[in-house]
Specification:
Length: 175
């Protein structure tokens, strides 16, 4: 099945149909969000609500998947949930920046510092890749996203300890 699907990439008619259908699914998500701006249609309910909001009246099938995490968030959780999702992503990148600054300020040059910065760079690249991928795939409920966020929360906590230790050392030296 996978090989057959990959072979269809050379078939321009299917590619056009796929692109047009995807645009319809995205439009349907926006219609859902506009009809349910505060709470959306509910978690994991896009597929079951698709037929109700589909303006094409079934031209692209019934109970279809959305193929966009950002629009899925908007359709299923409404605009407040969408804004919260965007805020979480922003905080992720801010957390990486904060952790990097702390590492550069408080860790001595050495292998530990290089590795910690390399891990944070890898997490930056991983999130960027996730965001690009999630523009075309439903990924909101993938554990990987939430694991990345958990790792950054842990990194901020760990690097926060560096700041506390430095403060204690400075206070002890001045006291």
């Amino acid at each position: 099945a996978y090989k057959q699907r990959m072979e269809t990439m050379h078939n321009s008619v299917e590619n056009i149909d796929s692109a047009v259908s995807r645009m319809n699914f995205w439009e349907t998500a926006i219609v859902m969000a506009n009809a349910n701006p505060y709470f959306g249609v509910g978690l994991q309910r896009y597929k079951s609500e698709y037929n109700r909001y589909d303006r094409s009246k079934g031209d692209f099938g019934v109970e279809r998947a959305l193929h966009s995490t950002i629009l899925q968030t908007m359709a299923e959780m409404g605009y407040p949930g969408f804004l919260l999702y965007i805020l979480i992503i922003i905080c992720y990148f801010l957390g990486i920046g904060t952790s990097k600054r702390r590492i550069r300020m408080y860790l001595n040059e050495g292998q530990e510092k290089k590795e910690f910065l390399a891990y944070l760079n890898a997490l930056t690249i991983a999130m960027i890749a996730f965001l690009i991928n999630s523009s075309f795939v439903n990924c909101l409920y993938f554990e990987t996203l939430w694991a990345f966020i958990g790792v950054i929360i842990a990194a901020e906590s760990i690097t926060g300890k560096f700041c506390q230790q430095e403060t204690v050392l400075q206070t002890g030296a001045n006291g």
